[in-house]
Write a structure and sequence with these properties.
Structural class: alpha+beta
Number of helices: 3
Radius of gyration: 13 Å
Order of helices and strands: HEHEEH
Strand content: 5-15%
Distance between the termini: 27 Å
Length: 68
């Protein structure tokens, strides 16, 4: 089994997801990692659709995008 992990230390605090402020930690980590995509099943995060330069996709959308 292969495990890939990257631990990031977000350098900024964001306040984007008003309905669930704890979800902002996901955004902070994604930005700190310079992520291209956030994959989530959380509706508050999915409602963003895109955050800055980062696409926000459900797992099914990711599979659809990369298997096409």
């Amino acid at each position: 089994m292969t495990r890939i992990t990257v631990v990031v230390d977000p350098g900024e605090v964001v306040q984007v997801v008003r309905a669930d402020p704890a979800d902002d930690r996901v955004l902070e980590a994604a930005r700190a990692f310079d992520a291209d995509v956030i994959v989530s099943g959380d509706r508050h995060i999915l409602d963003l659709g895109r955050w800055g330069e980062i696409d926000v996709l459900s797992p099914a959308e990711l599979i659809d995008r990369w298997s096409a």
